[in-house]
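[Q] Does anyone have a clean structure-token version of this?
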Amino acid sequence: MEFKGAYTALVTPFKDNQIDEEKFREHIEWQINQGIYGLVPCGTTGESATMSHEEHKQAIKICIDQNNGRVPILAGTGSNNTSEAIALTRFAKEAGVDGALSITPYYNKPTQAGLKAHFKAIAREAPLPTVVYNVPGRTGVNLLPETLAEIKKEIPEVVGVKEASGNISQVSQAVEYCGRDFSVLAGEDFIVLPLMSQGGKGVISVVSNIAPSKMAGLCSAYLSKDVDKALDLHFDLAPLCRAMFFETNPIPVKTALSIMGRMDLELRLPLVNMQPENESKLKQVLKQKQLI
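[A] Here you go.
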């Protein structure tokens, strides 16, 4: 399966420390109606690090049910514990997702050989089309393009990478070494257009939580070779992309959705509400972009 276009790294709405199912379903429905290509529950933006395994399963089930087969679902199933990643991937496969988003093990700091062994074990025990997630700033380990090419060759289940190293040269090497049939997806909203210009397929996006039609439109424009329109949308989205990282993701995006009236603001510790001066700056950008 080829994953391409704009996928939303879904926030997880909470209410009284439980998943707010009503708001989660509303958010999923709005995303689909706005033209998003696909959905990614239980990623970093979904606060997966503070969700129990039962909550992971609940969020994935809700997403599958509400989506009802309309767009692909790429479920976050990664862990720094290989056996946990296998169990979550096995559940997601049995539940009926289209693929898994599997982060490189964090904190452990495995070697490149360890990364390969991790993804091989998951594929062997729970085979499912998989996009590996490389985000060195959060994990402390960088999945190198050379290793990624070996993984693609040795593990057919790995069909793509969410590349969030922030290194556009590394993105280019990923496409060069893995081939144009491999789904190299941006893990950072501000590099979507540069990545696609080098053969990347799209993005797993934070900002599409609040501007799904624009991010989907950017990807569609580039895929249809309308570079001018893609460039216009790139610059149109740029202030929002910056605003989503005024503080640690997903604090700004959940705050924005709250300000927009789409859900209540509830974060899980150790994440806390935005500092007042940053929230004020965020509101200014939302007003500028006519989202409030």
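[Q] Thanks! Anything notable?
[A] The chain has a mean pLDDT of 97.
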